[in-house]
Amino acid sequence: MPGDLKDGRIVIVGASLAGLRAAEALREEGFTGSLTVVGDEPHPPYDRPPLSKQVLLGQATADSTGLPMRQDPNADWRLGVRATGVDLLAKQVLLEDGESLPYDRLLIATGTRARPWPNPAEAALDGVFALRTREDAGGLAQRLTAGPERVLVIGGGFTGSEIASACRERGLEVTVAERGPAPLVGALGGTLSKLAAAMQRNHGVDLRTGVTVTALNGNGSFTGAELSDGSRVDADVCVVALGAVRNVEWLAESGLAAGPRGIACDAGCRAFNMYGIVTDDVFVAGDVSRFPHPLFGYQMLSLEHWGNAVEQAEVAAHNMVNPGPLQRPHLAVPSFWSTQFGLNIKSVGVPTYSDHVVIAQGSLEARRLAMVYGYQGRVTAAVTVDMAKALDYYRHLIETAAPFPPPPGAQDRAVAADLAIPSDVPDPKGLSHGPTVALTGYLPDRRLTLVQPG
């Protein structure tokens, strides 16, 4: 029953940041019906960014990362139970304990999980970690406190780089292995990744680029790794930071447009079915979603961003309980931040949606700069390093599709416009880490079976 819904039954799958904010927003929107939140972890929603920062530094414990509730959403919390499917026709969510939950509206906010090490026997070695859950962070922090001889981090994306930074801050020896040419290259392109590589090496990281880890060694406990260049690294802790996997497998038989890049939805967060037809009663929010954005050529964006999960959850909640003419689009400009090796890196827009970059303020040498990204003559992103105050200005340029290179006033020297260089965004297939913003284009994730008219 599309349209206005102030009572009835809403089910949220995913006791995540997006799930919690959507539950709160539903009540703020005046929804008075029954609200059920399903989560496969035993904990209420908690915050993940501190897990790779404060928790690893020993400044906070893993169980202190619970998300504050703006208000009690008066929900029936089903924690520690996994959803196993959706029956779109019967409008039911199936749970692994055999129960089925009927819904009038469904919000899918199942997020991502850490990409596992491909060899299960090696992944099971004592001392090998991924970093996604509270348990992961608590166990890894305990190991770092015990003072290992060396930590091997596999993957030079944001998570891997933050882990390496925490290790160095704790005085631990650390090796980072990245298949691509530099850390963060998948997210920020070639120029800034060179700065990231220099910062890691200046802080004492043994950074190995252009190599893959071919095997993890150990007999019960991790002792080191073999690299593709024939070298080996002796270490007693290994952190696998190979990016994220979207939690969509449970939807394989649902008929929704769910694939490795997430669940496709429209700008109003309404899920598409596998034939590209929008559903009226199934919504998607957070890291598991793929949605079109007019500022980026209506490409389908997949984001792993804290702010996007919050903003999209609130749009989804609004649209779940309001009729069509009152529904809102999710058009927020993506933004992201990371602190590592003493640098504060902030990003706005989609750096991977670019063909050229220009340093508009500051310089690489000063380790303080604003880099503006352009695509086909207009501004699509900006990244600042220790210059966060400039970011709002560049956000405005992106929102207004300002010309690239940016006009005078957007930069601190007139010649900057002549210094536009290729943004050098690599093919993600060549990297150990994935970009935190992925442009997933228009292609479906699998071949469709054409329905023959009967």
TrEMBL record:
One Pfam family in the UniProt entry: Reductase_C
Required cofactor names: FAD
Gene3D superfamilies the record matches: 3.30.390.30, FAD/NAD(P)-binding domain
Domain called FAD/NAD(P)-binding: residue spans: 9-313
Domain Reductase C-terminal, chain residue ranges per copy: 336-406
A GO molecular-function annotation: oxidoreductase activity, acting on NAD(P)H
Keyword Chloroplast: no
SUPFAM superfamilies, alphabetized: FAD/NAD(P)-binding domain, FAD/NAD-linked reductases, dimerisation (C-terminal) domain
One cellular component (GO) term of this entry: cytoplasm
Source taxon at top rank: Bacteria
Transmembrane segments: none
Keywords: FAD, Flavoprotein, Oxidoreductase
PANTHER family on file: APOPTOSIS-INDUCING FACTOR 1, RIESKE DOMAIN-CONTAINING PROTEIN-RELATED
Protein name: Pyridine nucleotide-disulfide oxidoreductase
GN (gene name): hcaD_3
